[in-house]
Amino acid sequence: MQAAVLPFAAGWRWIQEGLALFKRQPMAMFFWSLVTGLLITASYLIPLFGQMALIASVPLLTFITLNACRHIAHGRIMQPGMWLQPLRDAGVRKRLLRLGFTYLGVCLLGGLLSTLPFMDTLMQAVGTEGQVDEAAFVEAIRGPFLTFAVIYLLISALFWHAPALVGWHGIRLSQALFFSMVACWRNKWPFLLYGVSWAAIFVLVQTLGDLLIAMGLGQGLSQILLTPVNIAIAAVLYCSFYPTYMSVFGYGADTEAIDDPNSEKQ
Fold first, then answer.
1. Which residues contact 242 (CB under 8 A, 6 or more apart)?
2. Which domain covers residue 136, as residue numbers?
3. How far apart, in whole angstroms, are the C-alpha atoms of residue 206 and residue 209?
4. How many structural domains does the chain have?
5. 95 belongs to a structural domain
6. Which of these, 254, 234, 237, 185, lies nearest to 40 by C-alpha position?
C-alpha cells in the first residue's frame, strides 16, 4: 500500500476535519467519548490487570471509532446496533485481538526498557525499609517517564494506522505495523503539528480550569463545569483519527471496499 505524503498544514487540517465530523453527529460521538471515558475509569477498579486489559483493547476501540466516523462521513445516522457491528466478523476480531495483545506486549517492553536504566535511583528513593521519599521519588521517575515518552512515539507510529489496515484490508499484522511506521515517518511533520496542536488544546483547557478556580470557584465545581468540555474535546480527537487515515491511505487504497458497509473486508 502506498502512503501519501502530505504537507505540514495537514496536521491542523486533520483536527478541523475531525471537528467537522463531530458537528455532523455530536451526540453520537459525545456518547462514544463518554463510553471510552467510563471504560478508562472502570479499568482502575482492578489495579494493573484493568489497565492491561484497557491497553490491549485500544485497537478494538480505535477500529470502532474509525467505523463510526466512516458512517458519519457518508451521512449514515449512528444507531445503537452499529457501534459493535465492525466486530461481528470473527476474522476481524481475531486480527484486532492479536494486534491488541501485541500492542500490550510492546508497551510493557517499552516500560521495562525505560525503567531499567533508572532502577538504582528508583530503589534509593524507595529506601531499604520501604519508606518512600516523595520528593526523591518524583525526581527519580522523571527519567523513566521522559524515556518512555520517546519510546512511545515509536510505538504510536507502529500502531497508528494498524487497526484500519488489519480491520478493513485484512493485512497481516507485521505488514500493517511496517506500513503504519513508514506512513507516519513520511508524514512526520504533519503529525508533529497534529500532536503539538492537541497538546496546546489540552493545556488551554487546563489553564481554563485554573482560571475558574482563581476566580473563586471550587475545584469540584470547576471540574463539573469542564467535564462536558473535556468529553467533547476527546470526541473531536477521536473523530480526527479518521482523516489521518483517509488522507494518508484511504484515497490511494481500495476505497470501494472501505466505504461499502456490506464489504467482506469490514
1. 17, 18, 21, 65, 66, 69, 70, 73
2. 10-259
3. 5
4. 1
5. yes
6. 234
C-alpha cell at 167: 480491520
The alpha carbon torsion through 93, 96, 101, 106 (nearest 10 deg) reads: 180
Distances (CA, A) of 227 to 39, 172, 249: 16, 39, 34
Considering the domain boundaries, does residue 5 fall inside one?
Answer: no
> How many Å apart are CA 185 and CA 178, to the nearest integer?
11
pLDDT in tens, 20-56: 999 999 999 999 999 999 999 999 999 899 999 999 9
Give pTM, 2 decimals. Answer: 0.89
The per-residue pLDDT for range 156-207, each reduced to its tens digit, is 999 999 999 999 999 999 999 999 999 999 999 999 999 999 999 999 999 9
Residues 167-179 as b/e (b if ≥16 CB within 10 A, e otherwise) read bbbbbeeeebbeb
Comparing C-alpha atoms, which of 94, 33, 85 is closest to residue 64? Answer: 85
Cα–Cα distance measured from residue 70 to residue 181, given in angstroms and rounded to the nearest whole number: 23
Q: Does residue 1 fall inside a structural domain?
A: no
- Which residue type does 31 have? F
Instruction: List pLDDT tens digits, range 59-93.
Output: 999 999 999 999 999 999 999 999 999 999 999 99
**Positive/negative CA dihedral, 79, 84, 88, 89:** positive
Q: Is residue 192 part of a domain?
A: yes
